[in-house]
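Limitations

Structures in this collection are predictions, not experimental determinations, and the ligand pose is part of the prediction. Treat each record accordingly. The example that follows, with adenosine-5'-diphosphate as the small molecule, is included so readers can see exactly what is and is not provided: the inputs are given verbatim, and the output is the predicted complex.
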Amino acid sequence: MKNPKYVYLFEEADGSNKKLLGGKGAGLAEMTRMGLPVPPGFIVTTEACLQYSENKKKLPKGLMEEVQTNLKTVEEKTGKNFGSPQNPLFFSVRSGAATSMPGMMDTILNLGLNDKTLEGLIQITSDGRFAYDAYRRFIQLFGKIALGVEEKEFEQILNKVKEKVGTREDTDLEVDHLSDICEQYLGLIKKRTGIPFPQDPMIQLKLAIEAVFKSWMGKRAVAYRKEFNITPEMANGTAVNVCTMVFGNMGFDSATGVAFTRDPGTGENVFYGEYLVNAQGEDVVAGIRTPKPIQEMKKEMPKIYRELERVRKTLEGHFHEVQDFEFTVEKGILYILQTRNGKLNAQAIVQTSKEMVAEKLIKKDQAVMRLKPQELEQLLHKRIDPNFKGKPIAVGLPASPGAASGKAIFDADEAERVGKLGDKVILVREETKPEDIHGFFASQGILTSRGGKTSHAAVVARGMGKPCVSGCEELRIDPKGREANIKNVHIKEGDFITVDGSRGEVYLGEVPTVDPEIRKDLLTLLNWADEIRTLGVRANADTPEAANKARQLGAEGIGLCRTERMFNAADRLPIVREMILAGSKEKRAEAITKLLPMQRNDFKGIFRAMAGLPVTIRLLDPPLHEFLPSAEELASKLRNLKEVEEAFSTMENISDAMKYLDPSFRESLGLLDHVVTDIIEIKEKRLDKKLIRKQQETLRKVKEMMEINPMLGHRGVRLGITYPEIYKMQIQAILEAAAELMKEGVHIQPEIMVPQVCTAQELKWVYQLVKKVQREVEKPYKIQIPFKFGTMIEVVRACMRAGRMAEVADFFSFGTNDLTQATFSFSREDAENKFLPLYNQRKILQDNPFEVLDVKGVGRLMMIAIEWGRKTKPDLKIGICGEHGGHPESVEFSHSIGLSYVSCSVPRLPIARLAAAHAKLKEGEKRPSEKYDPDVFGIPTV
Ligand code: ADP
Ligand code: MG
Ligand code: MG
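Predicted complex:
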């Protein structure tokens, strides 16, 4: 069998084949073919590396012969000879895989140096010091990398010489010292390896190539690939780039530098870079001397600068991407040593995308693909000023992104009070509960000492787009004392703190932040994404304000409007409680009558804000006891009341008792007598008794309603069926709001959605109710109200019965939060706090299914429901409204299974829009096999 070709000259290799040549090699090949001045050289392919690994670490047969042949060509090109003392050729030996990967072998420079060629180098550079220094570095690097001699042994020798000279700086060493060091190094290598340092350049080259190949399987590189999920499809083996050395340190007509074709920090279309005169490449990186901005070259080396400007244009014109390249100038001649796609920050990606489309360098599709949804996220939140250098006092979980400062406040009522005064607030709690909701509204950010990334605090904060750090365990809160401690930092209520929910960090004091930048160029890019995507994007929004914001961010409707948020408002909660605690039907009806106009107004506000777009309103979902105080809270109040009652009974006699104890009190007891009279009066009115009775009644009710497992308890449609008055009121409020707005000429598209449905019978029951209310409302308004009726799909049985559900439903909306809980039989809070982290760590589960939609299980249920639902009703509209709706991978999945839309929290709208466009553009692309179950894709299932 004939050997494959393992070695390619730069000019003969196919620069588009990164997998074979590695990124660096492909770049060098491509640039050579484009006619850019790349020093001659050749590439040993990644295939040779794989062969080496498979072949018990032996180079493939014939490889070195191939190397030799190519080397000859390079010698001819350069007019120099490898190993020649008169006119020596030196090489750099550089590793490079398909994806850039730290942890592999460092570049060996000046390969080919030995005792004889050293003389040649001295001749060429007329700089003995430089030549010896180069030799010293080469022996050290080669000794360490290719021969495995420990670096610290070289350092010891170096340090001893420096000590003798009386300096700490390498730069103070003179020729003689350096030549002495080289001698000692060579001695060390002989001692450690048993053989002299290889003077034969060919042997040096062979050992260097082997060293590069070994480093591919080295511990650091393997760990890096594992950590960043670099699969063999992405990068398999490293190539070796053997490149003629050029010297940027041959005097003042020599230089070296690094440049970007555009500013990688801002995206501005300016030449950006740094250079050093009379220096070698590594000096720029090492920071020994401070490099100058590239613009100064205009004056210092005008000819080279003009050439570089040309290179800049040529590179972008060819690669259609911002390039990051390295160059060296040897005696007035420019060489390009590397190019790759520039790493830009999110803002720079946005700006360059827009501009490169205008310059016709790329198409809109490519512009949209350049921005990753995850990177976009950086742009959508307030961040801590990147120039700020302070250290956090604690780190918790990054539960909701963004940064905010404010006064630390330890309960929701106080937060509301302080917030109303116009102060900024960070709500600091051990954990939060639904009754803290007003505190969230008043706060800039949330900090909790307990709870995971999906604790109540985290979920609510994300929904509101407020920063949250949760599970900050070092935080010790004393809510009674209104203070907290983090290690030995003391925080009193009212002290300023800053939370960074993107990183989970907590800072003391007010840290400067920078605003999110939804700038015009980002809007342009998002509009292009909208042109591309076919998946609809809606928002989860519960208030007119949120609806307005959602519109601004491009929502095409509301996919989930939760009505319980409305019940929780401060002015509603007492009435809601009245309704729940009502002893009779009449009493309940009374409370409900009070709620009706309020709900109607809520809906009118939201419909108006979303005029022209659909609004899905979910009927009440949570179990009713969530609106009541907890049993513990009530019991403790009762205890207090009873204590007061007891105190009252003994109060009557207190002044007599005091007089008896000491007659001299007589004078001063007048005041006390007054108080006692007042107390007796209160007592006679039996106010305390009444209160106690009321609290006892509430407590009894709360205990009665207590559920073992509220998540699976009396909630959703079950509630609607047992208390039809509540659903009836909500339906009426929706339809009346719709009717009134229609009269005003506002275009509305209400959608009534029923939660927690598990059988079509439930849905049919609610449908009858809706029909009845519809007739009742349409009559007085003399109008036909257009609306849609549908169901959440969040119960496993509902998926199985989707065909029947579709008989009454105009639409489905997957509630993937509950559906995930139901599919795994995981209670989310318990899972995330107890075992999910371990599951992830052990790779029993790849991701947290509450963050990343589990396409293999939950996804498959969704596919079944879609197929059966649409069999009954082909035009069935189907969306997803769980938190997953804003997660890029889940958006992609939603697109691929034919959903009509995703609905996500308002702040994530731009991400969903972008992700939906990516999904469309990636259609037909092969999916990473391990992510998608072959059962689900490709093979016809269900
Ligand atoms: P990295 O992957 O760390 O960028 P490189 O292989 O690009 O490693 O090399 C490191 C340094 O060596 C760079 O500064 C580069 O400019 C310099 N270098 C590499 N090859 C040569 C060469 N043939 N001539 C001169 N300098 C070189
Ligand atoms: Mg490197
Ligand atoms: Mg480099």
